[in-house]
Amino acid sequence: MRIALLVSLSVLAACQENHPEVPRSSLAALPPSAPSPADNPTTAKKVELGRLLFWDPILSGHQDVACATCHHPDFGYGDGLALSIGVGGKGLGPFRQTADTGLVPRNSPTVLNTGFNGWVDANQPPDPMRAPMFWDSREESLEAQALGPIESDVEMRGDAYPMEEAVARVVARLAQIPEYATLFAEAFGEAPSVAVSERNLGRAIAAFERHLSQPNSPYDRWLAGDDRALTPSQRRGLDAFHDVGCTNCHSGPMFSDFQHHRLGVPEQPGVADAGDGSGRFRTPTLRNIALTGPYMHGGQLATLDDVLEFYEDIDADGGDGPAQNVLSPQLRGFDLEDGDMDDIEAFLRALTDDFDREIPASVPSGLTPGGDIGG
User: Fold this and answer.
1) 24, 58, 144, 372: which could form a disulfide with 139 (CB 3.0–4.6 Å)?
2) Any idea of the CA torsion for 11, 16, 19, 21, to the nearest 10 degrees?
3) Are 293 and 80 in contact (CB under 8 A)?
4) Could you name the CATH architecture of 24-32+216-349?
5) What pLDDT does residue 98 have?
6) What average pLDDT does this structure show over 277-292?
7) Cis peptide leading into 266, omega within 30 of 0?
8) Is the Cβ–Cβ distance between 82 and 107 less than 8 Å?
9) Where are the CATH 1.10.760.10 domain residues in the chain?
10) pTM, two decimal places
11) What's the topology of domain 44-211?
């Protein structure tokens, strides 16, 4: 059968029946932790301050939404929703309900391993301050990304104040809390009167998010020499991914080329196909993909099976499908052997890390960690 799979990777697998053996030394791996910018080295104090800020709804306009509301460890630091529900929502993950404030027009990407965004060559790590963020790569670096949702009316700000005032208002709130003033001062080595700043707010949250970039999946353990870390099915799936040419887009140690592509996936009702301005979206990483559904930029596909079937049904040569001239040229048909689909999904599940799931018992504002996520 023919299938156009963009869920692919930059690696080859050990020998399994019809698949040739490739030396493990040719595979791309990530270091055990993400590098930090020269002006924001990761420290334990920054990480713990960033964790508190990540969970504190004081960062939102009406103090009911935290970063963790849409990036929760129970859902692989996503939220399990097709389109995220920020301002005015109640509940956690797939059970969260929206008010009349509307949905966030994009699926919530995982925060896990975002400290490695932009890595397409393990031998040439990119500048952390140039790492692409968001589905449309509109920001570069975790430091810049951390402040964006604070300004968004549907994500965190609501109608509490104008967008251009949002970050300054949040910083002013934080500065009035003695515990935060002390924590910022200790984390950044500055006087409490100046340590709580927009720059340090972004840097603290970024430090926490880089702390979540510690790949240790079965695949990583297999690369490190543990032959039992991958099952025979997963090794066959790894090889099948390479054999059908999926490395066209999901390549490198992050399984992403970090380029923008148009796939022709139907948009959610009422959501404009904006992307980067031309209807294209950045290739997401496949790391932790088994935890972060639903999939695609608008969460249009619920399961990994749905994703594989979507690509299977694409007519890369035109036909009755979307016009060829608007789809990314990397889409093409492939022939798969019987059982390859199951093996491919098995391998995707081998990209799941163990990661920090700690939820603070309290935050310095005294608000509920995570915002309004109760039943």
Assistant:
1) 144
2) 60
3) yes
4) Orthogonal Bundle (1.10)
5) 86
6) 91
7) no
8) yes
9) 24-32+216-349, 44-211
10) 0.90
11) Cytochrome Bc1 Complex; Chain D, domain 2 (1.10.760)
